[in-house]
Amino acid sequence: MSNHIGEIIRLTVFGESHGTKLGGVLEGIPAGILLPLDYIQDKLKLRKAKSSISTARQEEDRPVFLSGIHHGYTEGTAISFVLENKNAQSKDYELNKPRPSHADYVAYEKYFGYMNMAGGNMFSGRLTAIFVVAGALCQKLLEDKGIYIGSHIEQLYNLQDRPFQVYKEDIQVLSQLDFPVLDSSIAKTMQELILETKEEKNSLGGILETVVIGLPLGLGNPLFDGLESELSKSLFSIPAIKGISFGLGFDFTKYKGSEINDALYYDNGAVKTKTNHNGGINGGISNGMPLIFHTVVKPTSSIGLSQDTIDLANKKNTRLAIRGRHDPAIIHRARVVVDAMTAFVILNAYMKREQECLWHD
Q: What does 35-93 look like in DSSP terms, one character per residue?
């Protein structure tokens, strides 16, 4: 099982949705950095289930750091941490009946029936709490370098938020919002729609728009290690992410090259582009403009409506109405996870670029 990611900075995750604990090992963080505990906790709060638009499962999510931290500062060695599962209810799951569109069935076959399917095991969104802890540390280091990351719900079902306008101001506003929408009037409508869908025992998906500002030129590599490639690999590790596009993405098909090529120009000696249709990346390498991408979050697989499935024990067709506590929409909670994984990838690319630059100083 591939449970690690990263090159210069490396994250290894362990644990299960309904195990006693889950956690991570983060390697490659330099020594002497003050651990931003309050910052990490604030990010975890943005991921937590809140109000009736989220699952009723409540976890405290206060990371306990086991190694790599001394007197509040990083030691330069592996940083290991754990989070406790105190509110799991395995009885809510009919383990012989895989949930449609979830990973239950493929996990059962992949691991020859030995995996504990309660809560989805390692395929559960519960493990994204680990991503947030590690990613929050990376995000704070990037902010100290003037690099900022923010995401909003661009679309929920058929409802649209306004686009980013003043990037840094919008990012600062979003960092304080549990429900990350830039237009406060549409936020209420979105939440009402989520509640209506919950009453129907159904679920909703949508699209997140993410922007990264302050990126220097030259992050990433051509071909297999391109910034788009590395981001896509990391972001697809988040359960429910089913699509990623950069810049105009699929809307490139609506234009001719002359309409959407990003013309270059000098601005007081600095090279910029007049437009940013490519989302800040050319040839897998950051071009100094804001990095912009979109992620598709599918509707939550666990719903209360009766659905067709199979009975693995009896090898028969059957029906399943999922009981228990599940999110009618996870997009507002997934936002901070996307930010975290983006920070992890960007910091890796930033540190790799610093190594390259050492040879040219």
A: P-HHHHHHHHHHHS--STTS-S-------EEEESEETTEE-SS-EEEEEE--S--GGG-
- Angle at which helix 331-358 crosses helix 37-47, to 10 degrees, equals 140
Q: How many CA atoms lie within 13 A of 226 on its CB side?
A: 14
Q: What gap in Å lies between CA 339 and CA 346, rounded to an integer?
A: 10
* Matching residue, tokens 């309409």: 259
pLDDT tens digits along 279-315: 999 999 999 999 999 999 999 988 889 999 999 989 9
| Whether 205 contacts 194, CB under 8 Å | no
Contacts with 258 (C-beta within 8 Å, 6 or more apart), sequence order: none
List CB contacts of 250: < 8 A, sequence separation 6 or more. none
Torsion angle (degrees, nearest 10) of CA 231, 235, 237, 240: -160
What's the pLDDT tens digit per position in 162-179?
A: 999 999 999 999 999 999
Residue with tokens 């990613």: 135
pTM of the model: 0.93
Q: Which among 272, 36, 232 has a CA at the least distance from the CA of 134?
A: 36
